[in-house]
Amino acid sequence: MATRGFVGRRSPEETQKRLPPGQHRVEDFPILQIGPNPTIDLATWRFTLREGAKPLKSWSWDEFQALPRTAWQGDIHCVTKWSKFDTGWEGVSFDDLLADARIAAPTDFLLAEGYDDYSTNVPVADLAGGRAMIATHYEGAPIEPDHGGPARLFVPHLYLWKSAKWLKGLRFTKKDEAGFWEMRGYHMYGDPWREQRYTSD
Amino acid sequence: MIEVPDFRWRQALITAIAPVTARVKSFRLRTEIADAYRPGQHVDVRLTAEDGYRAQRSYSIASAPDGSGTIELMIEGLEGGEVSGFFHEIAEVGDAIELRGPIGGAFSWGPADGGPLLLVGGGSGVVPLLAMLRHRGAVAPEIPALLLYSARTRGDAIALDEIEARAGTEPGLSLIFTATRSGGRRIDAATVAEALTTLGHPTRVFICGATPFVGTAATLLVEAGVAPGLIRTERFGG
Predict the structure, then answer these.
(1) Could you tell me which residue ranges the Oxidoreductase molybdopterin-binding domain spans (chain A) (predicted)?
(2) How far apart are CA A1 and CA B99, in angstroms?
(3) Class of domain B111-236
(4) What number is the ipTM of this complex?
(5) Which residue in chain B is spatially nearest to A196 when comparing CA positions?
(6) Residue A135 lies in domain
């Protein structure tokens, strides 16, 4: 159904090719989150891998800094319909994290949990093989609290709500368990190229 | 599992258009979801050009479910805005657009959530809070509530006459309004302290506005002793 009189402001073709359906390009970096930034002290910060309630391995901030580093450059897509091109991130890959913990992923799913009330579910297959990192730097500088610093999950091939801010750990789960937004009607997987915004998409 | 709505795209008919401020217009839309949302939620709007090109944006619902079969959106006309430009310059009563929702259950309030309810709005960020105020006024006027509202000038403030009238007639509703460009001050620790003294300790807090406003307000409230877990935020723009 065409909307009477709507013409639209099309992006250049090069831009359109990089935009998933329903997205538009922004130059700024919008901030979306459910509540205030949590107060995080690097002296007491810990990052923990858990299987259910059982801790598997945890790192202090200094220990985390000593892990191998990974960099990624590319486009990011938010379910609120903005996309930002050519962003640069750096951190510790999920693969390197498991290697340092000397474990294989014990289940096929996990919940990423923040220092706030937030959580989000991601299949392990979408984190492994260099597809995701725990990011600590954006464009060469420590990630600001507004963007999830000191450390956030970063899974650029899924909508950005999967890249949980202020990450405190990853909890392996037997089944694919819905996180904060997924319980409120957002898609369990969230592929921007298939426009999986909400449950029925 | 929290109630999951049906997110199909649906046609909605524009039934009324009215100016709200120099930059903001109100649109009444006839839609099947008119009574099936919680105040604070938003809808996604989709426009389609003749050649199939589409643009989508999200807009907060300004109305409370009121049995009219319609919802009200308040849309700010942005410079070069692809979708807001359509609404401001082209849309007429009788036009159909597509929408889906409601979306965003975290930033929503119903009477079962109780109070005291603290609402903090900056500029057009007051729109989802207006839906909460309207709903509260209709179904639970006994729940204590306070709106802390900051706009550039009185003329830029959305629905200020209505909100002032509500604060004057609804017991338990207070308003602190500040016009930052006409002598009023920005929201600061003293404003927040005044709000908390007037209202009592809130059990629900919703903050909506531009990014710097929301960040500042959230920090001030946490510093004033409000538990971070009670605070929900929503931001417009960068």
Answers:
(1) 35-181
(2) 12
(3) alpha beta
(4) 0.90
(5) B7
(6) 45-194
